[in-house]
Amino acid sequence: MFKTIPNTLLKIIVTFTLAMLVSSCSIYKMEVQQGNALNNETVSQLQRGMSKAEVASLLGNPLLQDNFRSNRWDYVYFKRNGNKVANKQNLTLIFNNGQLAQVRK
């Protein structure tokens, strides 16, 4: 009634099953980037007296804008590989009367 499975077919099935089990156990930890990646060349182009529109065209919109302090823009950047933080940057810009007054790194 039941036919026996040939040894070669059985070996293929076992090998395929083990390969699937082992490959499903590996965990992929993706790279996560959040915020505005800023390079020194771009940041060095900031000048006191620039308007908010000029700063936004140069650096992009800030990640954080405080509703209670509209004169402060915070640029934050994180790059994470798996569980490790590979790169972290902070840049704070202070405006007076809509003009760039101070840059804090």
SSE inventory with pairings:
Elements: H1 7-25, E1 31-35, H2 40-43, H3 52-59, E2 64-65, E3 72-81, E4 84-96, E5 99-104
Antiparallel strand pairs: 1-3, 2-3, 3-4, 4-5
Q: What would your notes on this structure say?
A:
By secondary structure, the protein is of the alpha+beta class. The chain has a single domain, classed as Beta-lactamase Inhibitory Protein, Chain:B, domain 1 (2-Layer Sandwich). 30% of the residues lie in helices and 34% in strands. It is rod-shaped, with a radius of gyration of 27 Å.
Offer a concise description of the structure.
Helix content is 30%, strand content 34%. The protein is built from three helices and five strands; from the N terminus they run H-E-H-H-E-E-E-E.
DSSP strand tally: 5
Largest sheet: 5 strands, antiparallel
Helix content: 25-40%
Count of discrete structural domains = 1
Class by SSE composition = alpha+beta
CATH C-level class is: Alpha Beta
Question: Terminal Cα separation, in Å?
Answer: 79 Å
Could you please say which CATH topology applies here? Answer: Beta-lactamase Inhibitory Protein, Chain:B, domain 1
Poorly predicted spans: none
Multimer state: single chain
**Rg over alpha carbons:** 27 Å
Helices and strands, in N-to-C order?
Answer: HEHHEEEE
How big a fraction of the residues is strand?
Answer: 25-35%
Our count of helices gives 3
Average pLDDT, rounded to a whole number, is 83
Based on the structure given, which CATH architecture is correct? 2-Layer Sandwich
- Choose one word for the global shape: rod-shaped
